[in-house]
Specification:
- It contains two helices and seven strands; from the N terminus they run H-H-E-E-E-E-E-E-E.
- The strands form two sheets. It has a four-stranded antiparallel sheet, with no helix packed on it. The protein has a three-stranded antiparallel sheet with strand order 3-6-7.
- A hairpin with a 4-residue loop joins strand 4 and strand 5.
């Protein structure tokens, strides 16, 4: 039986095959990333940057702290003031979803029970975000992304 030699042609074939796999996987991952996450936080980043300091001062003046948790089939938002007392907002809009894609996004309707805002929600394990916009009785806007983790 003749001995087979590993020639330059074989090395070239291995090299091309390896890089074909690497490039193919990168293309699939890049396509998947672009398809599932729009990457858009604001419609016009220039306008948002011009309004940032004004909005920051409004947020700081309100002094609200927001915490989210999932418990007993409910999504609960705790909005508290500087003293830790619950805050009842004049208006609350929110979108709940994953950080990596918009497939699971939904718009909940929260109800205030005197201490926190709650809505029924079935959330899978992992990282979630509540992107909320709340207004106080004077119309000051408070917008924040509130990350939280759901244990499995």
């Amino acid at each position: 039986m003749a001995e087979r030699k590993f020639t330059g042609k074989h090395a070239l074939a291995v090299f091309i095959a390896a890089f074909t796999v690497i490039i193919g996987v990168n293309l699939v991952l890049a396509y998947s990333a672009v398809k599932t996450f729009p990457g858009l936080e604001v419609k016009n980043s220039y306008v948002a940057s011009q309004e940032f300091n004004t909005r920051l001062k409004e947020h700081q003046a309100l002094g609200w702290e927001i915490r989210a948790e999932a418990k007993g089939g409910l999504l609960i938002l705790h909005i508290t003031d500087q003293s830790g007392a619950p805050v009842q907002v004049a208006e609350l809009q929110a979108v709940v979803g994953r950080a990596t894609h918009v497939r699971d996004d939904f718009t909940p309707v929260f109800s205030f029970d005197g201490t926190a805002y709650a809505t029924p929600a079935t959330l899978g394990e992992g990282n979630w975000n509540v992107r909320l916009v709340a207004r106080d009785r004077d119309g000051a806007e408070f917008a924040q992304r509130v990350p939280f983790y759901v244990k499995g």
